[in-house]
């Protein structure tokens, strides 16, 4: 059976039954699958897919007699954002399945130019990291920071895996330092699962901090600040379609460009993101960030004056 078609059906069903609940009937689900060119489906196919979704992903889709339709059963202690993350993961799997399960999959390489990844060894750690996260047990590992002559041994509470700029990181809680720490998987050595269990789940606290900033290095000591940027007409379409941050809102817009506001933590990742747009973005507020960017631009110009 076509693996790509199965994932596409599962995605289509999950999107229809997720909140806000519309309680689609079996007929409506069937019509949706047929509209997505999945015409070889039947009511039995939908019943089988719902069963497979529960068995494969642990997600329950139930029928509501009163509303006469299907809905996603969400446990009371389950964060809806977790389901959104799962959908993103399944969508990536669908895109990969499309390339590798076509009838002429070997020929697809003629039409692809993939980025070379020399850090494949970082993914070797995923099984033990996943087991630490799943069993909520502390993880020990050696880690060498950039610029440090030797590695250091850590034993920390694992929180979650995150991806940023094509790199994988492990977010942790350090009980000794009483703070969150994030580690790049490519610099992690000899990760070992310990018998010490995690006492407090600090993921909600970390996620709350993470949504206020760019990058992976976020701490509670960092304050959310309003950042105002002027974007010229060249980069306006890019910033409108791919905002710098989820909090981005447009304050003004004209033929010359637009002015946007962000509610965000000031950190190095934000500065680097602004610098990536070169002369097309100007920091208007706060003055602290404007001065930092001015110094960085002057230093860049000095290097080209020689």
Descriptive account of the structure:
With 306 residues, the chain is an alpha+beta fold. Helices cover 37% and strands 27% of the residues. A hairpin with a 2-residue loop joins strand 4 and strand 5. The longest helix has 21 residues. The protein is globular. The protein starts with a helix and ends with a helix.
Concise structural overview:
With 306 residues, this protein is of the alpha+beta class. Helices cover 37% and strands 27% of the residues.
Topology:
Layout: H1 3-17, H2 26-35, H3 43-57, E1 60-64, E2 69-73, H4 80-100, H5 126-135, E3 137-143, E4 152-164, E5 167-174, E6 179-184, E7 188-197, H6 203-210, E8 224-232, H7 236-241, E9 249-254, E10 257-265, H8 268-275, E11 281-285, H9 287-305
Antiparallel strand pairs: 1-2, 3-4, 3-7, 4-5, 5-6, 8-10, 8-11, 9-10
């Amino acid at each position: 059976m076509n693996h790509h078609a199965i994932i596409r059906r599962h995605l289509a069903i999950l999107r229809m039954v997720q909140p806000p609940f519309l309680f689609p009937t079996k007929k409506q689900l069937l019509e949706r699958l047929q509209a997505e060119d999945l015409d070889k489906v039947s009511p039995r196919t939908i019943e089988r897919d719902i069963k497979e979704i529960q068995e494969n992903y642990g997600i329950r889709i139930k029928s509501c007699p009163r509303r006469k339709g299907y809905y996603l059963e969400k446990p009371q202690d389950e964060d809806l954002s977790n389901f959104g993350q799962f959908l993103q993961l399944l969508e990536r799997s669908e895109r990969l399945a499309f390339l590798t399960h076509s009838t002429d999959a070997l020929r697809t390489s003629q039409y692809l130019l993939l980025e070379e990844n020399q850090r494949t060894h970082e993914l070797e750690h995923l099984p033990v990291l996943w087991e630490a996260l799943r069993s909520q047990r502390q993880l020990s590992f050696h880690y060498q920071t950039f610029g440090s002559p030797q590695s250091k041994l850590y034993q920390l509470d694992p929180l979650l895996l995150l991806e940023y700029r094509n790199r994988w990181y492990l977010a942790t809680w350090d009980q000794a330092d009483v703070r969150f720490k994030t580690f790049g998987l490519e610099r992690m050595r000899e990760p070992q699962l310990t018998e010490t269990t995690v006492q407090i789940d600090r993921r909600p606290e970390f996620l709350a901090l993470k949504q206020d900033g760019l990058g992976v290095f976020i701490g509670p000591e960092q304050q959310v600040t309003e950042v105002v940027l002027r974007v010229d007409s060249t980069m306006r379409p890019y910033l409108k379609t791919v905002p710098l941050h989820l909090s981005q809102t447009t304050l003004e817009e004209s033929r010359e460009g637009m002015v946007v506001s962000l509610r965000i933590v000031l950190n190095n990742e934000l500065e680097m993101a602004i610098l990536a747009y070169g002369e097309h973005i100007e920091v208007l507020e706060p003055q602290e960030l404007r001065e930092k960017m001015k110094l960085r631009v002057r230093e860049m110009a000095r290097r080209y004056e020689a």
